[in-house]
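@channel sequence for tomorrow's demo:
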Amino acid sequence: MTTTPPPPPSAGPTGTGPLTPTDHRAFAFLGHVNSSLRQCLCTLARHGVALRRDAPERARLLLDTVRPWPLYKGGQFLFDLMEWEDLMVDGDPPPVMSTERIVAACTLPVRLAAAATEEAPAVTKLVPGQRTTAALGLPLSLLTTTARSTLLSAAQDLTDLLGPGADPDDDAGYATDPEPVTDDTGAELPPLEAGFYLYEDIALGALSVLGPLLADHAPTDPAPPA
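structure tokens (generated this afternoon):
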């Protein structure tokens, strides 16, 4: 299954096994990435189940709005292609990931998307002879700055998201929680529902948890005509 642990490490650097200590450390990191991704997806799905339960009309309108969008359809394709449902339901439910941690991990991608879709201001009074410089120099400078900032920020975000603290997954069969689970706001989160609703619940949970972050980057309304 997706969450099957890597082979046990050899006795040490001098072990006779085919895998090196570096291999085991690499597997440990990648396994932790899987665990954190599973924890995040399951948490979002639980928020989605709670939204369907507590506000069914809002949940229906949210899904009706996003279903035609390529971003939603592409997410559905990747969800099926990468078999994330198997990842989510294999083993006992992971701990709930805090809303703050999810928002922090998604802040950089949202900012980059906002910057990429922002309408560039019109260039006025361009000095003759500097069109080539303006056309090439500024974009290249922005590209270099953005790339450097993106790599540094992404590394920091990954460090924060995947840092120590996530509990390892149990390989037992999937089971619902014996006790209600609450998020960092104290709201009760029901168990996720595998099957037909799983991807929809993740989408609803993402809209619920990330809604304030997305709203903060919404384009401003154009000024009314004089």
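heads up for whoever presents: The radius of gyration is 22 Å.
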